[in-house]
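Budget justification note: compute hours in this period were largely spent on complex prediction jobs such as the one shown. Inputs:
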Amino acid sequence: MELLMSVLVGVLFMVGTYLILTKSILRVVLGLILMSHGAHLLLLTMARLKTGAPPLLGEDALSYTDPLPQALILTAIVISFGVTAFLLVLAYRTYKEHQTDNLDQLRGSADE
Amino acid sequence: MNNLVIVPILLPFIIGVVLIFFSKHRTVQHVISAVAVTMLLAVSIYLAYVVYHEGIQTLELGNWPAPFGIVLVADLFAAMMVILCAIVGFVCLFFAFKTIHPDREKFYFYPFYFFLLTGVNGAFLTGDLFNLFVFFEVMLIASYILIVFGGTKYQLRESFKYVAINIFSSILFIVGIAYLYGVTGTLNMAHIAERVAEADQQGILNVIAIVLLLVFAIKGALFPLYFWLPRSYFGPPAAIAALFGGLLTKVGIYAIIRTFTLIFTHDPAFTHNIILALAGATMFFGVLGAVSQFDFKRILSYHIISQVGYMVMGLGIYTPLALAGAIYYIAHHIIVKAALFLFAGATQKVTGTTDLHKMGGLLKTHPWLGWLFLVAALSLAGIPPLSGFFSKFALILAGLEEGRWFIVFVSLVVGLLTLFSMMKIFMYAFWREQKHSEEQARTRVSGLLWPIAPLIVLTIGLGLGAEPIFRFSLEVAEQILDPTVYIRAVLGQ
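Corresponding output:
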C-alpha cells in the first residue's frame, strides 16, 4: 500500500510540475493545487499506513494507528484551501486587469 | 512554563481581530494600533529581560508535555528577533499613518498588518517544526494581501508570481516535514535534534537538510532563488516595503540558523560548506544587481539579497565569533534596511518618483532628509562608527581565523560595491541640480522623519555601544551553538 501511495504522490508531483511550467495562469493554479495534494499524501504515507485500533485509552489492541499525521494533514489542508481560494481570486483579478491569462505577456517591464 | 512567551503572538492577533470591526473608523484604528504596537514593544523587551536573567523560557500549550504537544520556546536568539520585529512594526506603523492612502486603510490594512506580526513572532517563538510551517503560512497569507494592497496593475502581476513561488516553497516545506517525520517520528525540534544525534542515517538526513534549506532559501532569498524579491518588493507602498524588507526574509534566515544549529549539525563539512558557497554567491550576485539598477527602491531590494548573504556566511563559517557576527548583522540589517525603505518612501512623497534619473537636489530643499539618509547609507555600507562596520568586522575576522580566504575576499568586494551603490543614490537623489518643482520643494517631510529617527539613533547606538552589544551577540551565539541547553530547556531532563 505504501508503495502504491508513493507512486501516486510521484504522479501528482509530476502532473503538478508540468502544469506549473505551462503559460496559462489557471493551469499554474491547478498545478499548485495538485502538488499540495501530493505533499499531503506524502505526509500521510511517510508515517506508514498501519492498520490498528484508534489510539484511545481502553482500546486493547496489538497495534495503534498514529493520529499525528492526520492532525497535521487536516491543518495543512485547511491552510492550502485558504491559500488556494486567495490565489484563485488573485488570478482572476490579474486576468481582469491585464486582459490576458498568458504568463508570457505578464512578464517584462513595459509599464514600470 | 511561562505564559509570557505567548503574549507577543496573542497580542497582535487579538488586536488584528478587534481592528476588523473598526475598519471604517480611521481615528479609532490609529489609536488602537498605536497603543497595541507600543504594548508589543514593551512586552517583547520584558520577555528578553526575563530570558536573559532566568534562562530559556518555554510554554507547553494545553499543558501537554513537551514531545507530544506544541511548545513555544523563547531563547536569547528568539527573544532578540521578537524585539527587532516589534521595533520595525512600531516605526512602520507610524510611517503608515502618514503615508497610506485612507482608501487603502478602509480595506483592512491594519488587521493584516497585525496578522503579519503575529505570524513573524510565532515563527520566531515556536519550538515545533510543523507549527513553524503554520506560522509561516499565517505570515505569508498576510504578506500576500499586503503586497497586492491597492491592486495596481504592476502589483497584481508581480504578486501573482510572489504568491505562486511561496506556495510552491510551502509545499516543499510539507515534503521536508514528511520526510523528517518518517525518519525521526517526531516534530518537536528539540526532540528531533535528540533523535537525529542518535540515528546514523547520514544520507537521508542530508537530503532532508537540503530540502529544508531549499524551502528557507526561497523564503530568505538566497542565491539562486532570489529572483522574485526585487520585483515584488517594488510594488507596495513604502511602509509595507519597509516592513517586508526588514522582516520577511529574516524569518527565512532565522529558520535556517535555527535548523542548522539545532538539528542538522551532524555533517557540517557537507551542509555548512554548501551554505557558505551559497552565501558567497548570494552576496556577490545581489550586489551586482544593486549596482546595475537606477531606481531607489530597486537598489534597496537588491541590497536585501546581498546582505542576506552576510548573515548566512556567519552560519557557514560556524564558529561562535562568526555566528555572533551574523546575529549582530541581523540586528543591524533589520534596523537599517527598514530605515532606508522609509527614506525611499519619504523621497517619493517629495519628488513623486523613485527613478534616480528624475531626482536631484533634495539636499538643498530637505537637508534633514539628506543627512539622515547619509547616516543610514554609510551604516549599510559599513563605515566605522556605525553598526554595519562592527558586524562585518566580526564576520571577516572569523573568516580569517578559519582560513576561509575566498569568502572574506568576496565579502570585502561586496562591501565596496555596496558603498558605491549607496553613494550613487546619494549623489543622484540628493546632490546635482534640483529636478523637482518649487511646489514639491515645499512638501513638509518632518512628519515622515519622526518615525525614521529612532532607527537612525539605534544604528548609531549599535555602533557606538558595539562592545556590550557584541558581548550579547556572543552569548546568543554560544547558546545556539550548544543545542543541549535548548534540548534540556524544552524536554526538561
